[in-house]
């Protein structure tokens, strides 16, 4: 097998290797996916890790059905909605005064249901007017910098996680680099999995010898903590209802106004991710199976998760990074990862065990994956031949990058009693789309002059 050539049908590798590749995708998404409920729990809302894992898997499988089994994307829990969860946790006026945290989470989930339905509305618009007319507002001069920002916006979390134990993070990075550059055969296409497993085994030995890490408060703590593992049951159902009072999702205008507008950012991230996956795989998924299908898959998966107490879903850049490194583009491998997530969501003990992975290892892996996302954005701009000698294009890209990096805390404004936060990515997307629409000289046409061998040609200037 020539490992320099991408693999589009993983069956040629055999079932055992396919199962391992699926495991690699599961590990790539796991840290970030479970981090969302962990962070939401720190706000005081009882979002379940098991429920999050279950709907990440179910949502991914539903997405694949909607996209005719063509798009190798994994749907994990979205970080874009963290600001909304935090705002809901702090609400203490009107009906939210003295409300139990579990019930606040129900209303937050109701807002997520509505947010997911907004995807369906955009998909209907695309289906009605055609993807070419919509994509004229989202050319590579907009989506390219947005992809770059997705990676760069995640970069601080990679550094923060790695800083808890730098030597372990550097070991993780080194294993990935060595496996990907000098590895042969199967070693070359599972660098992320090796970058987790090998440092984890080393960490076990170091922990036994008394190695320490630095926590968020700057205190020295044991390198690994197995207290949650010892307390967890081997098997257990997802707490769809048990942690809540009454039904799961509840609906209220205030909560909807807090959560639903975040869909603007999430939809732009979705389009950027579809562009990134297209650029990686070398197929134009925005045109076939179509952006309307990918949006419907993502949106309904998000609404379904919110309806039963899970966080919003989003197409995961971490798994796009795995595609880049492994060069195995078969969607069946991603569906295996989704099945793993569903099965493992029934095991509180396994969730706790995987969550015992030192944050430094997650940080080291993230160094590579997040950087890969930004590099794909650069590639998207280069391969689509965006002319940056043109002042118009230069201005659009410049404003997008400054908005995305400058508004680190986003912009918060009041709507009635609720405060709505637009994230930096949402601000950057709105600014880029608006500038592209109003500045003269727009000469981009989606889907024209596609040249064989150029990955994900989204058109030509």
TrEMBL record:
- Organism classification: Bacteria, Bacillati, Bacillota, Clostridia, Eubacteriales
Record's NCBIfam families?
ncs2
* Topology with respect to the bilayer: Multi-pass membrane protein
Q: Does the keyword Lipid metabolism apply?
A: no
Which GO MF term does the entry hold, naming one? nucleobase transmembrane transporter activity
Name the chain's protein. Uracil-xanthine permease family protein
Q: Which GO terms describe its cellular component?
A: plasma membrane
What parts of the sequence cross the membrane? 18-39, 45-64, 71-89, 105-125, 137-159, 165-182, 189-214, 248-268, 333-354, 360-382, 394-414, 420-439
Family classification? Belongs to the nucleobase:cation symporter-2 (NCS2) (TC 2.A.40) family.
**PANTHER family under this entry?**
XANTHINE-URACIL / VITAMIN C PERMEASE FAMILY MEMBER
